[in-house]
Design brief:
The complex is a heterodimer of chains A (153) and B (118).
Chain A (H helix, E strand, L loop, with lengths): L6 E8 L3 H9 L1 H8 L13 E5 L9 E10 L3 E6 L16 E10 L2 E9 L6 H28 L1
Antiparallel strand pairs in A: 1-6, 2-3, 3-4, 4-5, 5-6
Helix pairs in contact in A: 1-2
Chain B lengths: L2 E2 L12 H8 L2 H13 L2 E2 H5 L6 H13 L3 E6 L2 E6 L1 H31 L2
Antiparallel strand pairs in B: 2-4, 3-4
The chains are: A alpha+beta (153), B alpha+beta (118).
Amino acid sequence: MTQSTDRIERKILLKASRARVWRALSNAEEFGSWFGVRLKDQSFAPGQRTHGRVTHPGYEHLVFEVWIERVEPERLLSWRWQPGIPEPGVDYSAEPTTLVVFELRDAEGGTLLSVVESGFDKIPPQRRLEVFRMNSGGWDEQMKNIEKHVAAG
Amino acid sequence: MSLRVSAPLRSAGFRNAAPVFAALGDETRLRLVAFLCSSGAKSIAQLTSGTDITRQAVTKHLQVLANAGLVRDVRAGRERLWELEPERIEEARRSLELIEQQWDHALGKLKRAVEGTP
């Protein structure tokens, strides 16, 4: 059960070295390969905007866009992004963002990765709603596609 | 997740969540909800006692909350009590859980990626 309305946190133990996990996170192209975004020839560098199209068939109209904050090799990667659905003609540069922080730690048998996304309380109600709409819409279906895609290949 | 979505997905679900968040986007109403949550059904008199909020103001706030499906009034004899509709609160809270699920899916994919190749 979610207690805080402002942040979510997930942790996962990965049976791989920190170097390996770091590469999968910090190499934009490799990140894109498991996250499902086309980030060829792009990189994650502090202060930089990175964006690309979602690669899953039927969902290519989705755009992934992040503003990188911190890149600390084999330790921490963070970015800001904006939840929700863009309205035509609206400049979103001033809209509130949520902060996503990936942190790596040594753990027995591998690497412990934590992901914290925070700042949901600052997202206006209407924008939150858009996020929920999106989640309740095609996302579950997309996830099934992802599972199939991975299982097949 | 922070993926931008075009028009076709907009019509999907959660239409009902808009009034919930709008209704909760006010400090007094948020307090009322928190109070009803911890105390159970209360009358207008009980809700205003010890506060500087007028009965009229509380009634108005409760009406907004009721329209969003967050509270309902029940008759207890000659008294009219207000109580929480926990389902709608749950629905709102579920939204963050959906985002958590998305992360779980994404991390599952990462796990397969890093554990499959050295």
